[in-house]
Amino acid sequence: MSILLFLPALSYLIFVYHSPLAFAQHALLLVSSQIIIASPFLTSVTLAKQYFAQAFDFNREFLWEWTVNWRWLGGEVFEDPAFGKVLLMIHAAGLGAMAVRWSEEEGGVTALLRRAWRNPGSSPARASLTSNRKVSSRFSVFGPSKLIQSNACPLCAGTVTVFFTSNLLGILCARSLHYQFYVWFYHSLVWLLWETWDGLEIDVMQRSVCHKPDALHG
Description:
The protein is an all-alpha fold. The protein contains nine helices and two strands.
């Protein structure tokens, strides 16, 4: 279940760095595979209704006693149906805000959508993921960080950051989490903190070590 939290990031990367057409093909493949898997339960209208009602039960009630991340709210607030809807809206708004940030390297959402509309069979990105291009900043979670300027491919930093941010947003907005779900994101916190660190202490230390190696020897 938790791996689905990476889906918004994967969708964004396919849409931007492959093509809108490739995104549509992947979405069709995903839907088709789910239909094939569900086919034994779709043999009649009655079974199909029961299957979809259970598989996509958005009115499902979560018990406060099993939650970890929202236990501090108390049972009355947690079990309120409105609470789940608020979390869903926050999750959607957060993904939208992150998509705006992610697209800054490509000229913004408007420019991306305009290029995608003009040529849906090609990547709307300024350059492909595997090309060497000049980037003026690190591809951080909350927008470009001004710490480093170098010739770099966003495949290493940008792709990882997009995936980890998408996952973390889902974790934060999940209504009920068990302890085992935290293994899906705990290791990414170091990376995300590094990418969003605006203090210059680490960068200054790096520059000192790189440009003044004698300092290491006293």
